[in-house]
Design a protein that fits this description.
The chain has 299 residues and is an all-alpha fold. It is 65% helix and 0% strand. The termini are far apart.
């Protein structure tokens, strides 16, 4: 009985493989290379024939535009034909992945950004950006949500780590001369990303709505009053008509003091505005690394 069932299954598989061989699944460019399925079964076995038929089908070739053989050419094609990987260079210099040269600070910074994005989205499920609920939402997260304290600490310490690694990355780039031509444009992009990283940290400081965040943002926004041309206490501020009710500090806080409007604006900038801007500049940053020939060589 078992032999009859196995023979029947083999005949059914052979029938479908023959139909596939006749062109139901194969693309036109493979018609010249058709092999007799019976010979294939003898040489490769049934699993090998199924794999051969799938890899030579039109459906497969519509997904994968190149061979899967491990050669320098196919490695390059795998990079340039992938929507996520094509921002990176197809080849890197031998010294580039070495820890003693890069310190991995750029990669660690990007990794912490991804961690902060994931943990930040999770934290948004438990947070209301208003004066009444913000602080108690944080306390409820720590005391009543499973692993809530771990989630908040991952986000908090990840933010501190990102600021530190950005500074180390900039220091490494400077000390190895990686800001020199033709990479000076990407150095400017990196400086912009540093500024936005600090702004992300600053706006997130207010969200717990505790005493530390409240007074830190109060001091920081008070300093903004002295911004040249945009603060009413700064140079040219009075000449340009700046007052306490229309300068940069008023725009940051949504009022003349730290309150509900400031908390809402900090929340929107921290969770939506700044991450979008940083993501765009990160794409440009990675793209320029590729266009500039990868990570710079040693001095």
């Amino acid at each position: 009985m078992r032999g009859e069932i196995s023979d029947l299954i083999g005949r059914i598989c052979l029938f479908f493989l023959i139909q596939m061989d006749r062109g139901l699944w194969l693309s036109d460019k493979d018609d010249k290379d058709k092999l007799d399925m019976r010979e294939l079964i003898k040489t490769k076995g049934l699993p090998g024939v199924i794999k051969h038929s799938i890899e030579n089908s039109q459906i497969w070739s519509s997904f994968f535009r190149h061979s899967l053989k491990d050669t320098p050419k196919t490695r390059m094609q795998a990079i340039v034909s992938n929507v996520f990987l094509h921002l990176h260079p197809a080849k890197v210099k031998r010294h580039a992945p070495l820890f003693k040269f890069t310190w991995c600070m750029g990669g660690i910074t990007f990794f912490t950004f991804l961690v902060l994005t994931i943990t930040g989205v999770a934290l948004m499920f438990y947070y209301h950006p208003n004066v009444r609920d913000a602080y108690w939402d944080m306390k409820g997260l720590e005391n009543h949500v499973p692993f809530g304290l771990l989630l908040r600490n991952l986000h908090r310490w990840g933010a501190h780590l990102m600021v530190i690694t950005v500074w180390f990355h900039m220091f490494r780039v400077f000390m190895t001369g990686s800001y020199k031509p033709p990479r000076e444009f990407n150095w400017v992009i990196g400086v912009v990303l540093l500024v936005f990283t600090l702004l992300l940290s600053f706006t997130g400081y207010l969200l717990p709505w505790d005493q530390l965040g409240f007074w830190a943002v109060t001091v920081g926004t008070n300093m903004a009053r002295a911004t040249p041309g945009m603060g009413h206490e700064g140079p040219f501020g009075e000449l340009l008509g700046m007052t306490a009710y229309n300068d940069i500090r008023f725009a940051l806080l949504g009022g003349s003091m730290v309150g509900g409007n400031a908390l809402l604006r900090a929340y929107i900038w921290h969770c939506i505005g700044l991450p979008l801007i940083v993501s765009i500049f990160l794409i440009v940053h990675f793209w320029r690394i590729r266009k500039d020939g990868g990570i710079s060589g040693k001095l």
